[in-house]
Amino acid sequence: TIPTEIWPLGDVLAPWDIKIEPPTPYQQQLKKALEEYQSNIPDPKEWSQDYPWFSSNVIKVHQLRLIRRKRHHLWMKKTIFTIQVMVLNNRL
After folding, report:
1. How far is CA 30 from CA 21, 26, 34, in A?
2. Can you tell me whether residue 92 is helix, strand or coil?
3. Domain of life here (predicted)?
4. CB within 8 A of 31, min separation 6: which ones?
5. Long-range contacts of 26-33 (CB under 8 A, 24+ apart)
6. How many CA atoms lie within 13 A of 89 on its CB side?
7. Which of 12, 37, 45, 65 has the most beta carbons within 10 angstroms of its beta carbon?
8. Widest distance between CA atoms in the chain
9. What is the pTM of this model?
10. Could you report the per-residue pLDDT of 74-83, keeping only the tens digit for each?
């Protein structure tokens, strides 16, 4: 058989996923801190309406990037075509 340190059991996704029973004091403290942290995260539905500009700016920036990328692609295509024509005509 393969040792579990090398190949964990089927229900274990990662080495840190192994449940130690009973949990160590460090694990208990970590779990408590994570629960406290997660409980203090505000619900986005409560605050996101205060920042409607954010999502619209993201969309605008993304659209600009797509336009620039398309322009750059067309420029590169034109440049490569021009070089190919020059090579074929022995101008380069």
Report:
1. 15, 6, 6
2. coil
3. Eukaryota
4. 23
5. none
6. 7
7. 12
8. 80
9. 0.33
10. 999 889 888 8
